[in-house]
From TrEMBL:
The keyword Lipid biosynthesis does not apply. It holds the Pfam family GAF. Keywords: Coiled coil. Belongs to the CdaR family. Gene3D superfamilies: 3.30.450.40, PucR C-terminal helix-turn-helix domain. Residues 80-230 form the GAF domain. This is GAF domain-containing protein. Residues 226-253 form a coiled coil.
């Protein structure tokens, strides 16, 4: 019987299953083949099965190589390091058909640390760190060779550590294979595949994982280089932006310097500084005095908010620039003396960081310095003019008034109309009188007035102003320079020197007497006029005439009697003479008690409810007596 080799070739060509190769042998035995023929048929079957195994291995290898090349291509397409690492472990799990895969990277000081995993279930395993030389992974990293085990825990080839063994047992891992990720002679990490059953990894699996690890190492290195390049480019962009910002800052500083220099050289003022700084910095700029009043503003119609005022006060308290976001303030200083503050409001164009950079802060502080210079210059001019005004006031108070024409000419040179009425203020101030005198000169000049220091007291006169308003101007204006409460006596308004040469002297005498009374009565730190002192004011008045006093205390009642023909004044006089007894008052006037009550109610409506209080009552009685004497 001839061996049917063609049958086996047909089986091979048809990719038949291994069991199908028993068919020809069984057919030969059924046909009664001899022992020699049967042996030859079985030999042919074994050869055919060997060929089948070779072809199967080659197909599997081709599939693995195809998958490996596909993996390499995919890795080459990825540029993000995290995506590359995750793709590596995913491909490793797929190529080896393992339960899990994971990858560790090397830390030169502390060994390997878990970077990415695929199929891992426990957090303890994901956080595992493997020292060099410990466990399978530590041995791979140390020796730069692949290692595998069919059952890790009992394998004594590796140095075990309780925490690593615990993580492996907790994950249920048995078989493990690990291969190094090599860049030249440097191990950058270890790639693992593992199974939760005892299932050895063969040489083919090791070779396949080694090949994947070689591609993976290149992909990891490329991704790292790309990330480093991106970081370098980003850093370069940041540096470029910083340089551009720096150049812009330098250009703004140069522009600001040129503008401020021209303002000083051309004799400009604080308004010019504010306008220029606002243009350079693209923000609202305001210069404030120490009381928070606006001296100059680039946006006059926009008031200073409470928050801006608080920032300004803080800068003055600290004597340096203060603020945050888009509101800043810096003090205007002349040495240690504070002259005010410069406020920088919101920017017209938003900055990236929102804060004031160093260059812009220096521009603001330089502008504040120039502002201090201009304010000092303006104050020096005012003080020079103030000295001339003070000399004229001192002459007026001394009674050595020049002739009208000379006085009118001196007033014209000082741009002062000496025919207007003036309020006269005498202030008693503690502390450095020279400094207080300078402050008084400044206060007078800013209100078109005159100031002088006379007999240890500060004397000021203000045009078109009543006594109290003038006194309050002085109290507020001298408060800071005096460093203590300022007591003021005030009089007027009195006729101007051109109208009555002696009027200012009389007003000065009355203001001095009011100041003396205020000090005697313990009214330090207050503004005191003759009217404030009640009937004492009559004694202190400049002319001693009682008519003004009677009018100030009884004027409405007298006017009512004159208009209505009533007898309210007589009723008041009788009422006080009867010791405020209504019955006796009615009897003396020959009227009913109700009539007296109605008249007194009318008086209350005319004089106000407090006219029967002790102090007012005394003043009313004095006015009644003076009215009777005058009549």
């Amino acid at each position: 019987m001839t061996v049917d080799v063609v049958a086996f070739l047909e089986l091979l060509a048809g990719d038949a299953a291994e069991a199908d190769f028993e068919g020809p042998s069984q057919a030969a035995r059924a046909a009664g083949a001899s022992a020699e023929e049967q042996e030859r048929i079985d030999y042919a079957k074994r050869l055919a099965l060997q060929v089948r195994d070779i072809l199967e291995a080659r197909r599997r290898r081709e599939g693995e190589l195809g998958a490996l090349f596909e993996s390499a291509n995919d890795l080459a397409m990825l540029t993000n390091l995290e995506a590359v690492l995750q793709a590596i472990v995913t491909r490793a799990k797929q190529l080896l058909n393992s339960d899990v895969a994971y990858l560790t990277l090397n830390d030169e000081r502390r060994g390997e640390y878990m970077r990415v995993t695929e199929g891992i279930l426990t957090a303890a395993f994901r956080s595992t760190r493997i020292p060099f030389g410990i466990g399978l992974g530590g041995l791979v990293a140390q020796t730069m060779k692949p290692y595998s085990t069919a059952d890790y825990i009992p394998d004594e080839r590796f140095r075990h550590a309780p925490d690593i063994d615990g993580a492996v047992s907790g994950e249920g891992i048995r078989a493990i294979i690990g291969v190094p990720l090599l860049l030249g002679s440097q191990v950058i990490g270890v790639l693992f595949a593992a199974n939760r059953t005892v299932r050895p990894f063969g040489a083919e699996a090791s070779a396949l994982l080694v090949s994947l690890a070689a591609h993976a190492a290149i992909a990891v290195d490329k991704a790292r280089l790309l990330e480093e390049t991106r970081a370098a480019v980003a850093e370069l962009e940041v540096t470029t932006r910083k340089l551009q910002t720096r150049n812009e800052t330098v250009e703004r500083a140069a522009d600001a310097h040129d503008r401020l220099t021209r303002i000083v050289v051309d004799g400009g003022g604080v308004d010019d500084v504010v306008r220029s700084v606002a243009e350079v910095l693209g923000a609202r700029v305001v210069v404030l005095d120490l009381d928070g009043e606006t001296i100059a503003s680039s946006a006059p119609d926009q008031p200073v908010s409470d928050y801006e005022a608080a920032v300004t006060r803080r800068s003055l308290d600290l004597s340096r620039t203060a603020g945050s976001g888009d509101i800043y303030a810096t003090p205007v200083l002349a040495g240690a003396e504070q002259l005010g503050s410069m406020l920088l409001g919101p920017r017209e164009v938003d900055r990236e960081d929102g804060d004031l950079d160093d260059g812009d802060q220096r521009i603001l502080e330089r502008a504040a310095l120039v502002t201090a210079l201009l304010l000092l210059f303006r104050r020096s001019v005012a003080e020079a003019e103030g000295r001339v005004r003070g000399e004229l006031l001192d002459e007026l108070l001394s009674g050595t008034t020049p002739d009208p024409e000379t006085l009118r000419e001196r007033g014209r040179l000082l741009q002062a109309d000496l025919s207007r009425p003036y309020a006269v203020v005498v202030a008693n101030v503690p502390g450095d009188r020279a400094r207080v005198g300078q402050a008084a000169t400044f206060v007078a000049a800013t209100h078109d007035g005159f100031a002088a220091v006379r007999q240890g007291q500060v004397v000021l006169i203000f045009p078109d102003c009543d006594a109290r308003a003038a006194g309050e101007l002085v109290v507020e204006g001298l408060r800071l320079s005096a460093g203590a409460p300022v007591t003021v006596g005030a009089a007027g308004p009195v006729p101007g020197p051109l109208s009555s040469p002696d009027a200012v002297v009389k007003g000065y005498d009355e203001a001095r007497r009011c100041l003396a009374a205020a000090m005697t009565l313990g009214r330090e730190g207050q503004v005191v006029t003759a009217d404030d002192l009640g009937f004492v004011g009559l004694l202190l008045g400049s002319d001693g005439h009682p008519a003004a006093y009677v009018t100030s205390r009884l004027g409405p009642v007298i006017d009512y009697d004159n208009a209505k023909g009533s007898k309210l004044v007589d009723t008041l006089r009788t009422y006080f003479a009867a010791d405020r007894n209504l019955t006796r008052t009615a009897g003396a006037l020959h009227v009913h008690v109700n009539t007296v009550t109605q008249r007194l109610d009318r008086v209350t409506r005319l004089l106000g409810k407090g006219w029967q209080e002790p102090e007012r009552q005394l003043e009313v009685q004095l006015a009644l007596r003076l009215h009777q004497l005058v009549a």
